[in-house]
Amino acid sequence: MTGTFSAKKPQSLRQKRFQAPRKHQKSALLLGLSTAMMATSPLSYAASEQVESEEIQLDALKIEDRTSDTNPYAEDGAPYKARISGDERRVKPLAETPQTIKVLTQTQIKDSGKSDLKEILSAQPGITLGTGENGNAFGDRYIIRGHEARSDVFVDGLRDPGMTTRESFAVEQVEITKGPSATFAGRGSTGGAVNSITKQASRDYDFSSIEAGVGTDDYRRVTVDSNKTLTDNTAVRFNLLHAYEEVPDRAPADRERNGFAASLSHHFSEKFSVTGDVYHLNADDKPDLGTYTVSGGDPVEDLPTYLQDQDFLNTTATSYTLNLKYIFDESMRVENKLRYGTTENGYVTTGARGTTRDATDPDAPGAETVGLSTHQGWQDVEFFVNQTNFFKDIQLGGLEHQWLFSLELSQLNVINGQYGVTNNGTTNCVLPGRNNTVNDSYCIVDPSGNYITDNGNIMGRSIEKIGVDSDYNIKTASLAAMDTVDLNDQWTIHGGVRLDSFDYSNLVGISDPVDYAYSDTLWNGHLGAVYNIDQNANVYLTYSTATNINGGESDLGTSCGYGGICTSDPEDVGRPSPESTQNFELGTKWNLHDQKLLFTAALFRIVKDDVMESTADDYDVVGTINTGKNQVQGAEFGLVGNITDHLSAQIGFTKMSSEILESSTAENVGKPLANFADTSTFAQIRYAISDRTAIGFSGTYSSALYAGQPDSAAGENYKVPSYTVFDAFASHKFSPQLQARLNVGNLTDENYYLAAYRSGAFTYIGDARNAQLSLTYDF
To answer: What backbone phi and psi angles, to 5 degrees, belong to 683?
Structure first.
């Protein structure tokens, strides 16, 4: 073990939340010197040795030996398993919360070898990826239980707006809530939400760690994580990141990440504390839109990389957060989170699609070819949010209540615009265009039918940032009240209601912009009951709702099919009813193996009504655009933690079905949803061979899905085939300070695809086989 000092984590931060203030001195911490770790990772210290911690009681503070995993939310000795949520509004441990919440801890994420949030989530069951409208490359697009969730991304319980690239270097754990959760999340969250819990400064330990890795495809990655106690009352933590790699087998496409995060915490007293943090990430990609899918067929294999030398996909994200906490007494406290942030996103990308040369082509009229296209856009985001949470534990009528009252004020401004792209290269083919036109174009197949592989400067682009095409603003005031009631030893009731009142404005257009403005109020809630079979097992039933508004997606203007405004007349923008979602979930959770292993199972049904469908008719003639209704139902199973003293795992399996119940297009009724995989599974297994060495593997399976717009019927002509991908990893501890980890991704070098655009024009390719070797030094 490294020389790490730590205060013992409380048995629960959610039960008996308000403990009496604890007084401690640094001398007390020094008495908690840990014994030497001999295994390769936090799990094997607890799993293989099962060493009982030696505890010392000093001034009401317990000091104990612990793993080097500093995640305060993980189960001691089982770092794949989270015990509690990092969102303190979840007042019960995860095993007692009546909802499917999948948590990926930092230890599990590191073992997996994945780092971008997109690749972490895409491996999880019940989650698929989507493409943007017409090649829109803004950030990451997630689909949870069949429903769009790209705007339902949170950091420490606060919405993280903007279509950005997200990284895990400063994350303790990623929490995936399945099913509507608008009481916590506000508008949206139809299929669920993603909440990243960040690393924060702590007085409870001192440590520093540097990790450096190299690998195939010019891979390199360096991270630093350091927490220091400056005084008895003050601590600081900082994280640094530099990473680069070429996309496996798709060079010159590449990915580069540079970032830092810093957190400063000060306790003015044992009752009052302030934590401030800053986060910055710069992501620079040369993006690859993959291949294309033939109508009625499969994605085209072995298409050469065709991105142009001038292509880019850039994200710069910065945020500042101030968190104040005050404990009145053991039963009452208040917390206030204030965040201001900005993101700058921009892309110019190249698409490819199979076509035939026009009859007027001078070199090979009528020949099959692959034509190139240009896709571009930029987005500047500025947001402010303030969330105040008041917690009160109270006994009424002999019953224990945990009250939560929440007030949230937020303002989001998103400016979307275009790049002026001039293609200066000499055209090499003539292709048919829309409306019986022909165009001088660029192709990557020569007249003889061979691929042109040296194609990076065919188009010879010059690029400049030009006009704004939409100015999106939304101001929201939210109130929520929740109560968790222990009726007796067997029964607990969870309930809550939330009001969101918003003012919406979206100025759309370049030369003659039109203002779409309206205001509305949304009501949502949840109600759940938990029956405890015994102290380690329960069954639960929960009901929850969510709502989506007209024009809710910030980057789409009047593109209705992807979440933009669905009414052509600005006077009608507020007339459609919000899309409403209801969810029922029946589940069970079992804590096993001395609470080191959690088994979960759930049956669920999500019904989304009043779905807005774009029509060609005037709103006054049609009378409504709330003509759609769909349903997703299925079962989800999970197993996470220590199966034995040497074997740990995270396993998930989801089996779902989807159906369009109502639609303005009659032939769509009965069809499944687009971008929907009915069967998916993920398993990550780790086995500690000895105190020093461990090996592991993971497997991801997804059934086939069909391309299309959100909430629409799957397009039967463009299929993304099913796939199975295996990864492997191994780690070895050379000394208490130094360890190595080897990761091999896509072990069998499977050709697989993640998502496709509704016309098949862009089909994302999964990474080819790759390998990385990392060294970690603790000091």
So the answer is: -140, 125
